[in-house]
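G., the chain you wanted modeled:
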Amino acid sequence: MITFIGGIALLLVGYFLYGSYIEKNFQIEPDRKTPAEVLRDGFDFVPMNKATNSLIELLNIAGTGPIFGPIMGALYGPVAYIWIVVGCIFAGAVHDYMIGMISLRNNGAHLPELAERYLGKSVKHVVNIFAMLLLMLVSTVFVVTPASLIADLTPGWLSVPVAIILIFIYYLISTILPIDKAMGKVYPWFGAALILSTVGIGAMMIFTQGGNLPNLTAATLQSFHPNGTPIFPALFFTISCGAISGFHATQAPMVSRTITDEREGRFTFYGMMIAEGVIAMIWAAASMALFDGQTLADMIAEGTPSVVVNAVSYSLLGSVIGTVAILGVIVLPISSGLSGFRSLRGIVADYLHIKQDNLRKILMVTIPLFIISYILTQVNFDILWRYFNWANQVTAVISLMVSTRYLYLKGRNYLVTLIPGSFMLYAVMVYILSEPIGFRMGLTTITYILGAVLSAIVLAVFLYTGKQQRDKLSPDAKLINDQLPIEVLAQM
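Predicted structure as tokens:
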């Protein structure tokens, strides 16, 4: 239990200490007008208060990731705690803060537009493909997972296919509403359900299972996965939303369009990622305390980790309160799926130059996306999760490189994003080389070496082009809203 309590304490300390440093390094300007004020349109650009923005950000980024991921990550044993704590403080929260604030400084721009501005025009197409692929996969996952939870909760009368259709209907209605109506009115209730269920699970686990909570020691600093799966790189893809997730880079710009003061950024972006880390710690610990590795693996193999969610909730809280806790879990993927489709619509519309200024144009983009997603719901969950994980972490690498270039061009400490970005770059290289969804090379010495060589090449090109870009900028080459001149980037 010491490791569990200590991990949560470190997450909180990380928010106050490292979060403050990241904010100082970014150099906020409290008096600067924000996109919510300057570009207010009553649909996406709508000023909202700090509490609402924070809840929207938390529910947007959370989904089932910080629950399903840690449940599966618990198969590796207490070493999962390290990745959640270290990854969250030094990678995930930094990633979320930087993209949220850079988007805020660039009129609420989505990741592909930021990639074009800071990495070069040709990169935009690659990022668009990855962002659209990721959002389609994650939105589909966040249809399937709540549908399975709902079906488990209502056996005999509400099947998974019916639940999927009902969720799509809710998404369609909410996608076409203004953000303050679709999210601002509903999410405080969703947030209350999430907080109560999380606190309930955490408290009961400490009081009833404290003695069963495994601690991180020299003896437990190894992989306990029953299938013998090595820690690297699998753990860093299994637990993504609880440590670092590229999906968050598609959500932060949505909230950057509703913030009215740059001082809110640390709590809204960095702080909500820390909150997600706490959720991840609770579910990883509960899974380890209640089940041995093989039992946990067998339960997950039955379908999705929703089986484990039900077992944990009922075991710790009883049937009535446990059902309430499951409802709190269900709102996570539903809220993230909604925001995922909303972001996907925006990115596709921007890419195809379809202005979203009336219902016909909104539906023209939205309906085809829902049809594709519905087809994908028929694919095995495990396959979807694997492709989602890889696309997710590739997007995280791109986001960290955008952040690194931003800090580099501003003459600030860019190592805070370059170091985690380089680590994740190596992880995604090894993953795609070794996994069945990639080149099927297996985890051999050659795979690790080739992954290192490819990563070094990508980093060398990235650093070289960054120097070229900086050399072409004059000392006063900054626009009033912090953007770099487009004509300079067009020459890259």
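DSSP finds 20 helices and no strands in the chain.

Shout if anything looks off.
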